[in-house]
Specification:
alpha+beta; Glutamine Phosphoribosylpyrophosphate, subunit 1, domain 1; 3 domains; 45% helix; 6-stranded antiparallel sheet; Rossmann fold; 16% strand
Length: 627
């Protein structure tokens, strides 16, 4: 695991080296074990290395036999031994035992087309000296990040703040990116909130040849022909084999490996298969003082049942407040997911004992675990109710429900449901998941800025068109796989773990499991009111029934309560009139109303206030303004 960066532009070697060193130093925590770079004609590539495999010989950049192809690489390829064996048989010779070197020789042998064979998580930059070609590439799911800028040549890096640190280019806010951020709680790729900085899309290569730049897609995640096998036992057996193989492959490391264990079925499944391979593997969890947010008892139950050692700590408000102060040190791209803070806290806890952790990210997307998928079914039923009953019975009842600060409270769910039940599926899903409907963004933005922002649902609309013919829950599932997963969840875990200088791996996003999920009829994911149907059937008898049957809780924090009480002063300071007006973006009167309604407990506005707070914190750090 590493942080990579580089530049391809007309400049002196001294300038290229100085800029690269500055970029590497900006993200030294991503790879504290070794720093290296290589200068070519008008191009330099560099890496900070976190040593996981072949600790002694794996320093980067790495090259082929005649040093005509070089690479800097962030990630892990889990089928590298199989690929290496085939490449050796074709005459290639290796000087390291790393998975990194396999990519260099694979490119020599098969070109960009060979990248499709890589099973893993990665972002890398490969320089071909003969062709003077720079190739940037990212894995098909988007597990590892890669940002680039085409201002004054090409510059790229694992994190956006590395590009923001370069002084040879001027950046400003993207109004379109900011509006999409408020629509989703993140900015869907390839866009960011910064004009001039883009994300490389999953499964894509960016190719720089002299003055030409083009993109090439080498792998696509999309619905496949549904599996013709309808026998549940056969599907269970296939899934068990895939899970076992994935966990085994992702436990390969020359350093200690542990598990993030929440007590949910995803992380518990990983713990079950990992315990068969390494019975003394360590697990790590976070506890909360507020009972409705605390999952630690479930993590304890699983670890005890599997005979594993559990290490945990309590995420208190004091911890939250301290970590919030440094939020923008590691979250260089604004993402309004408050769980990044306990994820970082958990990463620091794990980092005291291991260098690699397995995480359950991706399970809800691959096996349809979010309650919203059921809600989309209920929305169609709700539409059959007489309008009079909806307007004069259901909606008045929901609106008088008392505001609760508990996790996934009834009033919060009910109010979200009725607010968007009759929207097109992509708009409905987004507004259930995030905070701001477009009707309120008009009030959030100052003057007529919202009118200039463009279509905030453009990315989701494009997915909806491609998913034509699927049911509403299936379409919603695709939004989460193609947007929420790579641009929120995987950003969160990458930044949190890397800032703690540990590597996170996601066995449930192994290529083979993804392909299995994509070919699985949806009835094996959601059947009746049972979600993750096939996974729960498989794990019955392997995990305690209380884990199999428990309702999804999610990794939330008591934000509603803290915004009303302990964090109120900090929120009021960040959202003061002077602070808001200094951005030139927002309408302070509207934000102030949200804050007063929330602190008076009249409404639960946490989903609207937190994105504003995060962006304001980010703007204070990076000082970007509108063009």
């Amino acid at each position: 695991m590493c942080g990579i960066c580089g530049i391809y532009r007309q400049a002196s070697e001294h300038e290229l080296v100085e800029d690269t060193r500055k970029m590497l130093d900006t993200m030294r925590y991503r790879g504290p074990d070794q720093q290296g770079f290589k200068v070519f004609d008008q191009c330099v590539i560099g890496a900070n290395r976190l040593s996981i495999i072949d600790i002694k010989k794996g320093d980067q950049p790495i090259h082929n036999e005649d040093a005509s192809v070089w690479i800097v690489y962030n990630g892990e390829v889990y089928n590298f031994k199989e690929l290496r064996k085939a490449l050796v048989m074709k005459g290639h010779s290796f000087y390291t035992d790393t998975d990194t070197e396999v990519i260099v020789h694979l490119y020599e042998q098969e070109g960009i087309e060979g990248f499709e064979r890589l099973n893993g998580m990665f972002a890398f930059a490969l320089y071909d000296r003969r062709k003077k070609r720079l190739i940037l590439s990212r894995d098909r799911i988007g597990i590892k990040p890669l940002y680039y800028s085409l201002t004054n040549g090409l510059a790229f890096a694992s994190e956006m703040k590395v590009l923001l640190a370069l002084k040879d280019r001027a950046y400003n806010l993207s109004l379109s990116g900011v509006s999409q951020y408020f629509a989703h709680d993140f900015t869907p790729g390839p866009n960011t909130v910064v004009n001039g900085i883009l994300k490389l899309m999953p499964g894509t290569c960016l190719i720089k040849d002299y003055d030409r730049i083009n993109e090439k897609i080498f792998a696509v995640v999309s619905p496949q022909s549904q599996d013709k096998i309808k026998d549940t036992k056969t599907l269970e057996s296939r899934l068990e084999g895939l899970l076992s193989d994935s966990v085994r492959d992702q436990m390969v490391a020359d350093v200690p490996v542990g598990i993030f264990l929440s007590g949910g079925i995803d992380s518990s499944t990983i713990a079950y298969f990992a315990s068969k391979i390494k019975p003394d593997i360590k697990t790590f969890s976070i506890a909360f003082e507020e009972p409705s947010f605390d999952e630690n008892r479930y993590a304890g139950l699983v670890s005890k049942d599997l005979g594993l050692k559990l290490y945990s700590d309590v995420f208190t408000f004091d911890v939250f407040a301290k970590l919030f102060e440094g939020l923008t040190d590691f979250m260089d791209e604004p993402v309004a997911d408050p769980s990044v803070l306990p994820t970082y806290f958990l990463s620091k806890l794990a980092g005291e004992q291991v260098k690699v952790v397995l995480s359950g990210e991706g399970g809800d997307e691959m096996f349809a675990g979010y309650p919203t998928y059921l809600a989309h079914r209920f929305a169609s039923v709700y539409g059959f109710l007489p309008a009079f009953m909806r307007k004069h019975v259901v909606e008045p009842f929901v609106n008088i429900l008392p505001v609760s600060s508990k996790n996934i409270s009834l009033d919060f769910i009910a109010k979200k449901f009725i607010s968007s039940a009759f929207m097109p599926v992509h708009r409905r899903h987004i507004q259930w998941m995030a905070g701001f409907p477009d009707t309120e963004l008009v009030s959030l933005f100052k003057d007529r800025l919202f009118d200039q922002a463009g279509d905030m649902y453009k990315s989701a609309g494009a997915i909806a068109v491609k998913a034509y013919g699927l049911t509403d829950p299936e379409i919603a599932n695709w939004f989460d796989i193609l947007m929420y997963l790579p641009d929120d969840l995987l950003v969160k875990i990458d930044r949190a773990t890397m800032f703690a200088s540990i590597e996170s791996r996601v066995p449930l996003l192994d290529n083979r499991l993804v392909e299995f999920s994509m070919s699985l009829p949806f009835e094996y994911k959601v059947r009746g009111l049972t979600q993750k149907y096939i996974l729960k059937r498989l794990m019955k008898g392997k995990l305690p029934d209380s884990i199999i049957n428990r309702k999804k809780k999610g990794f939330g924090i008591p934000l509603t309560k803290w915004l009303q009480q302990e964090f109120r002063h900090e929120a009021e300071t960040l959202l003061s009139k002077d602070s808001i007006d200094s951005t030139g973006l927002f309408n302070h009167a509207y934000i102030n109303r949200l804050l007063k309604e929330h602190t008076s407990k009249a409404y639960d506005h946490r989903k609207k206030l937190w994105p504003i707070i995060v962006l304001m914190k980010w703007l204070q750090r990076y000082r970007l303004t509108l063009p």
